[in-house]
């Protein structure tokens, strides 16, 4: 708006203009029950966009998207907190954003508080939390319940070694319970230990779809590694 108002009072011969950016192009993928799928690609290749499209956060401009099952996504964990509300109040708010009922969140509150390990800070405003404390609370809330389709973006960095151990165990449990896992990561050892299928993205195009070890090889070849 500011740019438009300014342009009304002055003319610039080479003024920039907005244009469409297609983060994903000509994607044709079917993921079935039981599959563990790893997403590979350089930063900006389209991995996160793919995840958020499947999660329903980004609308598609053409084609068809069909998702059958309850989706649980873990990315941008610290988004959605009300900074002036306490951690305890944000448990309820965050639960509502995840589509969970107030009754369910009240039943799970004690478990979430214990898992986050924030002690008395749970009754302090979120704006007084460090970034790590916010992620710990968000992780504890978001992983309280799993889903049929689990979407993960990168590894969760959530505090000290003790908490990281708990986080890893909970993620492992969610993965085991999920019918479908889609994981975007640059940690190829983790991808190969967890996933059986790999999708390689390059500048918004899906350039490889196959066995995970072959997907890693294809990524390395594309990027000259």
Provide the descriptors you would attach to this structure in a database record:
225 residues, alpha/beta, 6-stranded mixed β-sheet, 8 helices, 6 strands, ABC_transpr_TagH-like, ATP binding, ATP-binding, ABC transporter ATP-binding protein, transport
Write the layout of secondary structure elements.
Blueprint: H1 2-7, E1 36-40, H2 47-54, E2 71-74, H3 87-97, H4 102-116, H5 131-142, E3 149-153, H6 161-177, E4 180-184, H7 188-194, E5 197-202, E6 205-211, H8 212-222
Parallel strand pairs: 1-4, 1-5, 2-3, 3-4
Antiparallel strand pairs: 5-6
Give an overview in words:
The chain is of the alpha/beta class and 225 residues long. It contains 8 helices and 6 strands; from the N terminus they run αβαβαααβαβαββα. The chain has helices at residues 2-7, 47-54, 87-97, 102-116, 131-142, 161-177, 188-194, 212-222, and strands at residues 36-40, 71-74, 149-153, 180-184, 197-202, 205-211. A 6-stranded mixed beta sheet has the order 2-3-4-1-5-6, with helices on both faces. A hairpin with a 2-residue loop joins strand 5 (197-202) and strand 6 (205-211). Helix 3 crosses helix 4, helix 3 (87-97) packs across helix 5 and helix 4 crosses helix 5. The longest helix is centred in the last third of the chain and has 17 residues, at 161-177. The N and C termini lie far apart (44 Å). Residues 4-225 form the ABC transporter domain. Belongs to the ABC transporter superfamily. GO terms for molecular function: ATP binding. This is ABC transporter ATP-binding protein. Keywords: ATP-binding, Nucleotide-binding, Transport.
